[in-house]
Write a structure and sequence with these properties.
Elements lengths: L3 E5 L4 H17 L2 E8 L3 H5 L6 H24 L5 E7 L3 H11 L4 E5 L5 H7 L2 H8 L4 E4 L1
Parallel strand pairs: 1-2, 1-4, 2-3, 4-5
Length: 143
């Protein structure tokens, strides 16, 4: 039985579907649910760039917080009380999700997938595929 669910979200359509699935699974099982978003513009990037200013950083942070708030509001509306949110930094989104899940004892990861195939998948990669292959726990991919 799952006791700690981690749902990766980025505000995309596929992430919305994953959020809905995670909420329903947490509701059915009574599991603790955390929504995670990965900020791929790291502090180190910002310190080396003249293109980022405080207004841009604040706007990026506001977007991340809005994504998490939306998921949390949805979860609370479904009757969940064991819900939290987290943000981590990392260029490799899959690695950041996996590291967070491992270091915080999550036993199931839920993520969305756009479902790219062929050349698009080779060029753009697949975060979901990387999470599936490298995660220490079961992974559910929602399309």
């Amino acid at each position: 039985m799952n006791s700690k669910l981690l749902c990766a979200t980025d505000g995309s359509h596929s992430a919305e579907k994953a959020t809905d699935y995670a909420i329903e699974l947490a509701r059915k099982t009574g599991a603790y649910l955390t929504f995670l978003t990965v900020n791929h513009v790291t502090s180190a990037d910002i310190s080396r760039s003249v293109f980022w200013d405080s207004d841009m950083l604040n706007a990026a942070d506001a977007q991340l917080q809005a994504e998490l708030k939306s998921a949390t509001v949805k979860a609370r509306a479904a009757g969940l009380s064991n819900v939290s949110c987290a943000t981590v930094e990392g260029h490799n989104i899959a690695a950041a999700i996996i590291a967070f899940a491992e270091s915080n004892g999550y036993d199931h990861v839920i993520t969305g997938s756009v479902g790219r195939t062929g050349v698009a998948r080779m060029l753009l990669g697949s975060i979901a595929q990387d999470v599936i292959v490298k995660a220490h726990c079961p992974v559910t991919v929602v399309r």
